[in-house]
Amino acid sequence: MPREVILFGLENDAAGEEPRALHLLAQGLAVRGHRVTLAGVLPAAEPVRHVADPAYDLVTLYDRRPGRLLRDGRGRLRRARAEMARRFEAARGGHVVIASPGASDWLRHVPAPGLSRIGRCARSYRQARLDPAHLRIIRRDYPGMARSVFLTEEDARAFAAERLPNTAAIPDPLAFYPAEPAALARPRVLGVGPLTWRARFDLLIGAFAAAAGRVDEVWELHLIGEGPWEERLRALALHLGVADRVAFRGRARDLARECAEASIVAVTGEFGGPPPALPEAAAYGVPAVSFDGPGGIRSLVAHDRTGVLVPPSDEDAFAGALTRLMRDRALRLRMGSRAREHVSHLRLERVLDRWEELFEEIER
């Protein structure tokens, strides 16, 4: 049954996991026959085209980025909210999926009669607790939603313990699920994330340097991302004697290709949700070495089956896990095959099924 669906975020044409997921959902639902609008507040400073030929309507309420929303005029803010109220009125009987607590806060005073509100949160429970403002919005707004959707069952249960009565778990979809897995023959470790403290690439470079010295084959570490830590990380690689083996690649232009050319994906940071590129690498059958912890890691990496989990911040253990996989391609292939199957439920069609089932539950 075709439905009116509005997906609402703050910066939908920005780079990042959340905008990408919103565009994939919008396109998938539209292709299935739903009338979909992807609405956002601000244009990104550096816009990214997430879908080549959108089958959904795209709306951006502000035509340019103000220094601060209110500095640009309360009148513009009122007009933007009035525009969303009109769109909500026109979509009566449908659903609005609110991408984040920040988006919910922006919509707080926008009426949506006849629409079911579904609050989404891509952050793990632990990350939300570290941000008091974020958690306050969830506690204030999400109990009144038709559903509160989190990315993992673990996080849905944790938020339910916060007296949230309406939790559900639906993961973000994969951008791709290739017909064939990667060969895992190229001696390359892949790390994806911002070049900031959050990704902890300093630990990854240290672990890689130790592991690279233990194996005969000449391995490389490719870091995908941008940020203020680049010079610091380059200096560390030089100090550890692996400057010629650590490639700083900048922003990913083709994540699928990066995953296909890797043999190990490494996760040293703690992110708000699932780490960047980990599910996509698994779809290519690339095994992971990751620090254990929250944020969906255990839902994506089954220890000693699809990859290796090591204690948080234990650089020596991380180096040992890298060494083990670097030395043994047969082990990489076995773990990678299981990793590929492990994330098959993240294929777009299966995630769309989950969303349609959720809509049906709400409508009953």
From TrEMBL:
GO terms for molecular function: glycosyltransferase activity. Residues 186-341 form the Glycosyl transferase family domain. The keyword Glycosyltransferase applies. Keywords: Glycosyltransferase, Transferase. InterPro entries: Glyco_trans_1. PANTHER family: D-INOSITOL 3-PHOSPHATE GLYCOSYLTRANSFERASE (PTHR12526:SF510), GLYCOSYLTRANSFERASE (PTHR12526). This is Glycosyltransferase.
